[in-house]
Design a protein that fits this description.
Layout lengths: L2 E6 L5 E6 L5 E5 L5 H13 L5 E6 L5 E7 L2 E6 L5 H14 L4 E4 L10
């Protein structure tokens, strides 16, 4: 099963990624100023994954990617895929496991192991 992973960008804004069962990033969200906005959008996506739209594109370099749209708004952008079949597998992973995936928060720099 995949996971939503919350982290901070270098400019102190929040983002989340959706990772596959094997730990590979499938898509990255837009930036959020506040962490609770990030968490709310993850919950919205989990609750209504069936209404998400996946707009497929091909880059000038020949790679495939998609933009995840929710309620007509750009929500996230996928990683680049080498084939359209791999792109479709990434989308299928989101549809199958997105609503059941756990949320991991790595936005704080708290270390578990102390020197």
């Amino acid at each position: 099963m995949g996971a939503f992973v919350i982290s901070k960008r270098n400019n102190d804004e929040y983002k989340f990624v959706f990772t596959s069962r094997k730990g590979k990033i499938i898509f990255t969200s837009l930036s959020y100023e506040l962490k609770f906005e990030c968490e709310e959008d993850i919950e919205k996506l989990k609750a209504d994954i069936g209404s998400a739209d996946f707009l497929k594109f091909k880059s000038s370099g020949g790679k495939y990617f998609f933009k995840l749209m929710m309620e007509g708004s750009h929500f996230a952008t996928s990683r680049k895929y080498t084939t359209s079949l791999r792109l479709q597998k990434g989308i299928s992973e989101i549809v199958l496991y997105g609503s059941k995936s756990e949320i991991l928060d790595f936005s704080e720099n708290d270390f578990i192991f102390i020197d």
